[in-house]
Design brief:
Length: 115
């Protein structure tokens, strides 16, 4: 799973500027992401779903969008991405899960319209 983005031009503007301004820090961050991804037996799709769940729990719309976008690029079933939000209901609460579903659908519904 190539989870870290190596090319700063592919990053959202603030992160891209940070990577340009602090390349050594960005490289260390990227290396940490790669090391944690390779630290155990979890398969790539499960890693993506876990990272999506962590993003939902952190209430980070940007991170949810990032992991959904990457998941779709990796052919993760859009319904699996939405199920992660549904699974968050008992732990995070209904309102947070509904926010997460809306963030996921920002991208999954966009893809369905292209089909």
């Amino acid at each position: 799973m190539a989870d870290q983005i190596d090319d700063p031009d592919e990053l959202p503007s603030t992160a891209g500027e940070f990577a340009d301004d602090y390349p050594e820090v960005w490289e260390a961050y990227s290396d940490l992401g790669e090391a944690t991804s390779e630290a155990g037996p979890i398969d790539d799709e499960t890693k993506r779903l876990v990272k999506l769940a962590l993003s939902i729990g952190a209430q980070s719309e940007g991170a949810v969008h990032s992991h959904v976008r990457r998941g779709l690029d990796e052919d993760v079933d859009p319904e699996a991405l939405k199920q992660v939000a549904a699974l968050s209901i008992p732990t995070l609460g209904f309102p947070q899960a509904m926010a997460a579903i809306s963030w996921i659908e920002d991208l999954t519904d966009e893809d369905e319209g292209e089909a």
